[in-house]
Amino acid sequence: GRADESRVLEGESVAFEALTRVLRASGKPGRPAVADSRRARIEAPSISAGPAAGDLEAAGGVKCLLKPGEEGLAAGFFSAAKPVFVSATSLVFRSGTKTSSFAGEVQAWQDKDFLLAGGMDLFEATGEMRGRGGVAAGMTQAAAGETPERRIEAGGEDMIYSAAGRVLFFRKKSYVQMPGARLGAETIDAVLGREGKGVDTFTALTSVV
User: Fold this and answer.
1) Which H or E run includes 153?
2) From CA 209, how far away is CA 190, in angstroms rounded?
3) Eight-state DSSP code of residue 144
4) How confident is the model at residue 209 (pLDDT cuts 50, 70, 90)?
5) Which of 31, 96, 135, 208 has its CA 20 to 30 A from that of 144?
6) Do the beta carbons of residue 94 and residue 85 sit within 8 Å?
7) pTM for this predicted structure
8) pLDDT tens for residues 156-167?
């Protein structure tokens, strides 16, 4: 890959499997294997790099730091100006499609904002984020006039974040919860404000029986 895609792989043991062209690093209790680059730092009991340049898989309980800045990985609705922390059971990154797929009890957070999901995919090229397996997102709605800043949680079975329109689409068994109110709906769309502005508006559609 390019120089800016270089990655350092460390572990208690590191082995290159010539047949599969995979470099595999293993940690030990208390000292996980580490993959570190300008864009992200990944810690897990087992990390494999290859066979394609830039490909990476981590398993056994993953902790990931997505670093801020222009070289950082796109992280959905989270701000690119601050680090994002992610934990999951496993991670698969494919350099060809620039996609990161986290699976198993996924938790992603930045300051007070968070995303919980069974699985989460990040698409670097478009900035799109997808959540599946039951998704909950916690965000802030900025103060407006006499209305103070407030915390909002939205969720559903599945979620797609469109970076182009800065919209979160929740589908199936969706809901929005805010101080003093909860709304359930078949689908909920949340339009986000510009960087750091939180939620602007919600649109909810209930199923017709």
Assistant:
1) strand 150-156
2) 24
3) B
4) very low
5) 135
6) no
7) 0.86
8) 999 999 988 888
